[in-house]
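Because discrete structure vocabularies remain unfamiliar, it helps to consider an illustrative case, giving the amino acid sequence and backbone structure tokens:
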Amino acid sequence: MKITWKHWLEYALLRIVATALGPLGIRRAGWIGARLGALGYWPLGIRRGVVTRHLAACFPERTDAERVAIARACYQHLGRVAIESILMSRLGPESLRGLFERIDGWEIIERGRARGHGFVLVAGHLGNWELSGAYLSAIGVPVAAVAKRLLNPLADGFVNRTRRRLGMAVVYDDEAVRKLPRLLKEGYAIGLLADQAGLAAATHVPFFGRPARTPRGPSVFALRFDAPLVYVCAARQPNGKFILHLEEVDVTHTGDLEADVEATTARFTAVLEKWVRRYPGQYLWAHRRWKRQPEDTPPELREP
């Protein structure tokens, strides 16, 4: 892609933010990010209508005031994630480990590694998804993150240099089919975000009771290579630190690959929904998760 003046401007702003906020430390800088993120809810109102509709549809049992509080928390959390992701470029493995208070489910990783080959990590845009893979890499788990190419090549280079410096391998999504089988055989944990389908191969499975187009990739790799499928989430706690939640997802093996992929995809999406319900203020509600639905979807289950 040809690099334009706009790309250079965006990259300069990225480096300015990293330089200016870096001395504050990632937690204090994250507080500034939260204040900036709050502006997205009010007064800017960026996608506020989408967030409001989604929360009303997914949490009808909550009061209006409770849903407003979740929405505000969502914007603040996204601001924190943005700043934390930029300042990861200044972290080393030791300081990265210091951001976490514990891991729940570490025995799942130990069982997977004992089998002698890799496993599939699946995550959503919940908690700080960038920190999940980086933290596992910092504690000695070889991680290969599957990434989309950013529209700005300079920003893309900045983000992926940070990932590699923290120990992760980076595989672009258009290279995944070719590279991931080898990495799995070499014992890597391959990390995929699987709650935004885009143009990727996808199937429709329930998410908060509505059919949502969901990537098939995690299920396909887990099934074809007999790899454990593990849900992962770095969830922010009230004290500012994170807990890394790990949960193994049952993989269906009936011999019918298409049916097994759909059943497994529905299962990991149900696990994601469970954790979104636990941490609703840390989910990316601004994404139109139910935008593309089957034509025969009943009116009451259409996109909110």
Summary: The radius of gyration is 19 Å. The mean pLDDT is 94. The first helix runs from residue 5 to 21.
